[in-house]
């Protein structure tokens, strides 16, 4: 909730009151010993924010509540009905013959009585009391692209959830791009449709992921020797021997 809502403005009124109390106490400290301060408000929401120290509120409310607590504390605040609050009379509207100026100078007559007899209401949590709660940050999982093969790509993306190989490669490409973009500045991030090189890179990732199980086999050394396996510049296993030579000849012919 943003903007100057009614609860926020009522909180500002409480803040102004707390600042005024500090000024008065400073001015009177040489003449009068003030043992106790009592603050009254008819705003259940603002009062809840002030007294509820267990919650964390958004910056606007947090800063003002913090200053109020520093100025006068939380234990001195009480809640009264709006009809008992002299400051609420002009905002509600009244006729001139109903306007009693002395109320603004002395306050309600019951202030001169013992506090036990005051018409103080029990504080109840209002409907908007949680409107300024600070949202908890959601846990985020950070993945380093270079470590996909270490943690196992299948631990990040479940290949069984895809109906086609093409969809699997495209989703992998989007995930890979997202991780890469998280490490770059705004102007360096890749945008637009998935490109062919990104699809190819995703395919290599899945090939390397599948080859991990092969390398964990007990007879991998024997298989590697018989097939002439080697790692290419991308870290994927390839066969040597005649297949390697055939690939070399095809490459030379296409140049």
Write the topology of this structure.
Blueprint: H1 6-28, E1 39-41, H2 44-51, H3 59-72, E2 77-79, H4 89-92, H5 101-106, H6 148-151, H7 153-156, H8 165-182, H9 196-215, H10 220-227, E3 230-231, E4 237-238, H11 241-254
Parallel strand pairs: 1-2
Antiparallel strand pairs: 3-4
Helix pairs in contact: 1-2, 1-3, 8-9
Overall structural domain count? 2
Helix fraction? 40-55%
Q: What is the terminal-to-terminal distance?
A: 64 Å
Oligomeric grouping of the chains: single chain
Structural class label:
mainly alpha
Largest sheet: 2 strands, parallel
Q: Total number of helical segments?
A: 11
Low-confidence sequence ranges: 137-146, 247-255
Structure description:
With 255 residues, the protein is mainly alpha-helical. It folds into 2 domains: 6-117, no CATH class; 145-254, no CATH class. The chain is built from 11 helices and 4 strands. It has a two-stranded parallel ribbon. The protein has a two-stranded antiparallel sheet with strand order 3-4. Strand 3 (230-231) and strand 4 (237-238) form a beta hairpin. Helix 1 packs across helix 2 (44-51) and helix 1 runs parallel beside helix 3. The model is unreliable at 137-146 and 247-255 (pLDDT under 50).
Brief account:
With 255 residues, the protein is mainly alpha-helical.
């Amino acid at each position: 909730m943003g903007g100057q809502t009614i609860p926020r403005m009522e909180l500002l009124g409480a803040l102004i009151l707390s600042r005024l109390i500090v000024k008065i106490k400073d001015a009177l400290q040489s003449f009068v010993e003030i043992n106790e301060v009592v603050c009254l408000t008819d705003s259940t929401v603002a009062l809840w924010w002030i007294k509820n120290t267990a919650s964390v509120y958004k910056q606007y409310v947090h800063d003002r509540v913090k200053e109020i607590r520093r100025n006068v504390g939380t234990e001195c605040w009480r809640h009264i009905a709006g009809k008992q609050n002299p400051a609420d009379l002009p905002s509600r509207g009244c006729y001139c013959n109903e306007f009693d100026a002395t109320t603004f100078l002395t306050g309600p007559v019951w202030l001169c009585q013992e506090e036990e007899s005051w018409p103080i209401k029990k504080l109840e949590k209002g409907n908007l009391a949680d409107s300024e709660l600070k949202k908890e940050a959601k846990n985020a999982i950070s993945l380093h692209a270079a470590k996909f093969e270490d943690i196992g790509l299948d631990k990040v993306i479940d290949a069984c959830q895809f109906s086609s190989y093409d969809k699997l490669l495209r989703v992998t490409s989007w995930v890979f791009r997202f991780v890469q973009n998280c490490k770059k500045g705004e102007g360096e991030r890749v945008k637009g449709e998935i490109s062919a090189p990104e699809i190819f890179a995703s395919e290599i990732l899945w090939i390397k992921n599948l080859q991990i199980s092969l390398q964990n086999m007990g007879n991998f050394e024997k298989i590697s020797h018989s097939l002439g396996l080697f790692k290419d510049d991308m870290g994927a296993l390839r066969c040597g021997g005649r297949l390697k030579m055939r690939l070399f000849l095809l490459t030379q012919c296409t140049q």
